[in-house]
Amino acid sequence: MDNCVAWKKEEKVYLDLDLDYLERRVGDTIGDENVDSGSKEEDSPADSLDRVKVIFLGAPGVGKSSIIRQFVWNEFFEDYRPTERRETFYPSVVHADRLYELKITDLPTIPYFPVSTHLEWTDFRYYGLRSATAYVLVFDLSNQDTFQYIRTLREQMYEARDMRGVPLLVVGNKQDKLSAVVASGARYRDIVNLVRKHWRCGYVECSARFNCRVVQVFRELMKSIQAAEGTTPSPTPTASHHHHQQQQLRSAHTSRDSSDDKCFII
Ligand SMILES: Nc1nc2c(ncn2[C@@H]2O[C@H](COP(=O)(O)OP(=O)(O)OP(=O)(O)O)[C@@H](O)[C@H]2O)c(=O)[nH]1
Ligand SMILES: [Mg+2]
């Protein structure tokens, strides 16, 4: 376990993609007044594309929004502003020479994971909970009670949908607040053991506050998404799709302006 405070700020390469064909959702996720209205999910052309849908879940205050905002916008707020409505982020990521267009959904804490489409419709309409490509489950390393929330949620997810080929990544956030005493304790060891050995899923410790290993969170996420692509039937890229990707990749390497559609090479 490394100490995040001592770490130097992670380097992240971000360039801009030529995504003119997309409807820009400028400011969609910044400032409260611009937050996604939570209205009908399929309104945006950006959603109709083959986006990789990632949902962040976890107990209140563990730092879900902070991790996402640190990655997408390089910003961090000390004050706690609970997420009140669904917020969506649309970064593009190049990982292992492949371009992925993500749709990251940040939600107000959900009391449970809907076990049926009926419950999803009545209680969590347009959250896309049951149809996500991948989930990131966040807990707070300095408040290990928050792990129980994701433990229960994970059980509910496995009851609710076929999780084979659905990547799950566990993130222990606020690593800067993890004391040596806690880190050498049995409870901490049990959590890491459970996640790594029994759940057999990716596990990253990070600090959104210090932007420490936040990129690693997304790198691990992309790795598990890539691995899952090999196990689930996904549409084989057509020649024109491949050509389009190549063009986007080229453009990602050449274009640098201040547009909001960032492309992260991780
Ligand atoms: N020390 C420390 N504080 C953090 C870190 N990440 C987030 N915080 C703080 O924790 C509080 C909650 O962060 P949020 O990102 O709003 O948490 P959240 O999980 O989105 O919370 P909800 O939207 O209510 O579910 C804020 O005051 C953040 O400044 C971290 O890595 N270290
Ligand atoms: Mg939040």
Automatic annotation (TrEMBL):
Residues 229-239 have a biased composition (Polar residues). It comes from Cotesia typhae. This is Ras-like protein family member 10B. One of its GO terms (molecular function) is GTPase activity. It holds the Pfam family Ras. PROSITE patterns: RAB (PS51419), RAS (PS51421). It comes from the Eukaryota. InterPro entries: Ras-like_GTPase_Reg, Small_GTPase. Residues 228-261 are annotated as: Disordered.
